[in-house]
Amino acid sequence: MFHGSMVALVTPMAADGSVDDAALARLVERHVACGTDAIVAVGTTGESATLSTEEHCALIRRVVELAAGRVPVIAGTGSNSTQEAIELTRCAMEAGADACLLVTPYYNKPTQEGLYRHFRAIAEAVPIPQILYNVPGRTACDMLPETVERLSHVPNIVGIKEATGDLARTREIIGRCQGRLDFYSGDDATALESLLLGGKGVISVTANILPREMHEMCATALAGDENEARRLNARLQPLHRDLYVEANPIPVKWALHAMGLIPPGIRLPLTVLSEQYHATVRQALVASGALSESASEPRTEAGGGPETGNA
After folding, report:
1. For 94-135, how does the pLDDT look when each residue is reduced to its tens digit (9 = 90+)?
2. Where are any strands of DSSP class E within the chain?
């Protein structure tokens, strides 16, 4: 249903942690102009964990409004409470989102049967296209390929974002599901390989920084031009690597601030990128062409230090 470069959009925040609507509007316009294939709002990169339910739903409505039908909007609506996930998913559908992204329940440690029933219950309760999201490194919950296969028979479960970076698993899920749902990489570093194996796209952190280049790499790979896709991806590799020197979205928000695109805000318990990593991330921006060698460091005295951000 969806394909190509789908940005895991950051939620821009002022130094006090409040959502910056003007910066959000600028980001959405930039992605539309640069050919981003879909915008994923209020996911992990969008700091969904520290947004209130009211903020969460308001952000979905606002991104849908800003996108204005020019690019699909996929709303992050997962929760470790099945009922809460249903409520957020219903909110996204009513807001006009094109689909929802639902992370595996974190902390609870459900069984594979529990995972199957959780996602089936949400899909049956809210008739909007839904994308599963497996990221065991964050959730301590791993949805196995056989469970994905079972869920692929639910009509409105249309895809899975698999963020393990395990290409053997990519092959297995694609083989098991036989086209009933689409495979999306949730790992920028292995996204190209996933596309070449039959994946349909990537839900990308790197696309926040270089949206046009990420779109072009994905489009080229999906068109079957492996050599050109590898050439384009080589430019992106420093970002694929160094946007994870600390927990996402810490480095990508610092990078976007360094580029002058967003204010410095981030919410506790996350903190602004540690000073020891400034040079690493800045060099990745320079190496990829996202920032000129002469660009200055982002300001920190206006609230960009580690102590800023609200819970």
Report:
1. 999 999 999 999 999 999 999 999 999 999 999 999 999 999
2. 4-8, 38-41, 73-76, 99-103, 130-134, 157-162, 182-185, 201-204
Domain chopping of the chain, boundaries: 4-225
Q: Is the dihedral of CA 300, 303, 308, 309 positive or negative?
A: negative
Q: What is the DSSP string of 178-243?
A: TTSSEEEES-GGGHHHHHHTT--EEEESGGGT-HHHHHHHHHHHHTT-HHHHHHHHHHHHHHHHHT
Name the residues annotated as catalytic: 133, 161
Tokens of 19: 């959502």
Indicate the residue type of 197: L
Span 4-225 CATH architecture: Alpha-Beta Barrel (3.20)
Mean pLDDT calculated for residue range 199-224: 98
pLDDT tier, 52 (very low <50, low <70, confident <90, very high otherwise)? very high
Please state the pTM of the whole predicted model. Answer: 0.94
